[in-house]
Task: structure prediction
Amino acid sequence: MTEREVRVRFAPSPTGPLHIGGVRTALYNYLLARKLGGKMLLRIEDTDQNRFVPGAENYILEALAWCGIVIDEGVGTGGPHAPYRQSERKPMYKQYADQLIASGHAYYAFDTPEELDAMRARLQAAKVPNPQYNSITRAQMRNSLTLPEDEVKQLLDSGAQYVIRLKVPRKEEVRFQDLIRGWVVVHSSAIDDKVLMKSDGMPTYHLANIVDDHLMEISHVIRGEEWLPSAPLHVLLYRYLGWESTMPQFAHLPLLLKPDGTGKLSKRDGDKLGFPVFPLEWHGIDGETGEPTVSRGYREDGYLPEAFINFLAFLGWNPGSQQEIFSMDELIASFSIERVSKSPARFDQNKVKWYNEHYLRAKSDAELAPYLLTALAEHGIACDQAKAERIVSVMKERVSFPKDFWQEAKYFFQAPDSYDEQVVSKKWNPQVAAALTAYAEALAGTAESTAEGLKALFNQTVEAQGMKPGQVLQTLRVAVTGGAAGPDLFETLAILGTAEVAARLQTAVKTLG
RNA sequence: GGUCCGUUCGUCUAGGGGUUAGGACAGUAGAUUUUCAUUCUACCAACAGGGGUUCGAUUCCCCUACGGACUACCA
Result:
């Protein structure tokens, strides 16, 4: 068992976009698989046909790809255990449910939804704290344990609707060792007789996930903490199916909480929180109004996948060192499930932003230039790669997202249509205007094009006018760019070119007097 | 309500019977910068509470409080 090949799976259900908690679960699975030289599988758990959302599966595939999480086996990739979509594996589950019935660990139940409601209402009225279909209540229900054998057979033969339920023992301690939490013990009386096969012939999650994990030879089940309460049930299932010796090891990850700490992050949080909960933008339909909706995504908001992943990896895990910056390869090398923390983590917008700025600045100008070029193209502005690289190089220290380049660098392509009022009212005067005019004229007659050259020329010109450079500098920036802040002024001028700068200075003097 | 899980700076976390309880983000201040930003430096800031065990507990145990998850023919 310990020598077994490491095989982990990420098993989302296609009920909508993946949210960042799901992405983190996938990430940890992937990191462990790579770290231990194992395989990462992707299985789609679509046993609930009512909740199927078109496009969700593609979204999942695309999101994982964007994150750099590579699937070795599964939907979209294929593999020896295909199909990897549970709806397509439907015929495989029934035999295991039958096996459980044959061994006396499961039974047929014919109760209608109304009868179940009535049962719960009755128990509630009797002040039973936790109404459930269990070792006590099943004696009063219509199932193969209470009905005469021939009646059961007749019901089955007549095609009556039924489900198959697990016969959970009345009192038994179920324990298992969680890789993150240690021994977890639950009393079987807290578990109810879970439905294994639904009346539509589909297995429920509980049966399907055990059967598939067994058949797919999964070695580690790494999933969210919301599964912890049902883990003992799964242990029981492995036992009754005779698979306990190859049962995967469990690791239940701490939840990702909303920033205010009031509950787990969910898909329904959509855009309400002020930051995206989805990796990619999602175009959905409002469940109540039927209106189309758009939810923000990290990709579209301008986050770099490496920043997003680095941040996510640190939400619930840390390497034990003081290093904060990790590439995917470094994460793989350092990852261990034992260092995943037990307590839930809140989402921290500031930290993701910081990671993004870090990764943005680490990129070369050549890598960054396309972001600017794309935005320029959208605005019908022509620009060559060399110029874009130059702009990006002076801008990257001052933006948080690639999409900010266009907004911040606009003035390289468009002359200002307004001037920073504060600077104008404070610093603009006739001498300044004269100095700028003089500089414009000097620019028209110079062959200088470097930042240093333009700076020297400026100092010279201004001093000839009997002023100090410092008195004119701010107004020079405002006259040329319209704004009061920006990267090195003479570098900016050099990128703009002397003719353009001269023209803008003339305009400014004319406009501001 | 019941069952289970959890609790170190505002946030993510390190640590672990004796520490000035460490780092990062955010915040604040300063330095650099013609501006803003970057960068650098410094500062601020935490062991939920109560009982044990112990020479000594933030660390181990118990209780309480608080938070969360689960409690479907959903996953």
